[in-house]
Amino acid sequence: MDEPIKHEHIHIMDTVDTFQEAIMQAATPLINDGYIDKAYVQDIYDSLEKNGPYIVVADYVALPHAQPSEKVLKNGLSLLLLNTPVDLLGNPIHVFIVLAAKDSTAHLASLKSLAIFLMEKENIDALIGAESVPGIQKVLEERWQTS
Amino acid sequence: MKILAVCGFGVGSSLILKMTIDKVLKDIGKDADVVNTDISDARSYQADAIFTSPDFVESLTGSVKATLYPVNRYSDKEEVKAQLIKAFAANEK
């Protein structure tokens, strides 16, 4: 099976000062690997300002993303786990999962698997409790259902 | 019943919300047609109920016929279940 999220797109940090910093850190592997243009991150900030924090899909989990555009070069996901949560417009967040989608049907299968994963609180607890990148991968691989 | 799951772009979060609604429908043994879309399409869509964030409920109020049901956490089955029960009760009247 393919990795749910590529290991080189996952990292852990102790703490950040702002949610903007968290989103930029979470997106950096996708920028460095040529999946997204840095300008895509600005689109995410703009969307949050305009649309509010609905990307907080579960307690402690945010899915930063913006509209599909030419700023997305490849479909992908990246993950940042913060040991200390940061405030995102009134919501404490431990896990940032950046979605890069080239169009609205792209990446449907992994988004569906992600949705099923996030519906179970114990999956999120296990993710937050992970202490290393291999630990995060283990949680994802064991609990990721492909449909 | 036709339900719209709405987010800003119709690409990520609204699919997550649709998946949660579909899962809860299965759990409670109810049937509905669930479609996910973005905030601008939501205005031109015929539906009985719209599930979306409190911010989008505010911006859609007055411009859609469908009843609006706010959901804070798109993957929270309990929150979605409470709103689905309300939507079915309203739809059966």
What attributes does this structure have?
heterodimer; A: 147 residues; alpha/beta; Mannitol-specific EII, Chain A; five-stranded mixed sheet; 5 helices; 5 strands; 39% helix; B: 93 residues; Rossmann fold; four-stranded parallel sheet; 4 strands; 22% strand
Sum up the overall morphology of chain B in one term: globular
Which segments of chain A are poorly predicted (pLDDT under 50) over 5 or more consecutive residues?
A: none
The CATH topology name of chain B reads Rossmann fold
Total strand segments of chain B: 4
CATH superfamily of chain A: Mannitol-specific EII, Chain A
* Oligomeric state, counting identical vs distinct chains: heterodimer
Number of strands of chain A: 5
Arrangement of strands in the largest sheet of chain A: 1-4-5-3-2
User: Architecture of chain A, according to CATH?
Assistant: 3-Layer(aba) Sandwich
Structural class of chain A: alpha/beta
- Global mean pLDDT of chain B: 95
Most residues in contact: chain pair: A-B, 28 and 24 residues
The CATH homologous superfamily of chain B is termed Response regulator
Q: CATH architecture of chain B, please?
A: 3-Layer(aba) Sandwich
What is the top-level CATH class of chain B? Alpha Beta
**Low-confidence blocks of residues of chain B:** none
Strand order, main sheet of chain B: write it out.
2-1-3-4
State the end-to-end CA separation of chain A: 12 Å
Q: Estimate what percentage of residues of chain B fall within beta strands.
A: 15-25%
Instruction: Write down the CATH class of chain A.
Output: Alpha Beta
Q: Taking all residues together, what is the mean pLDDT of chain A?
A: 94
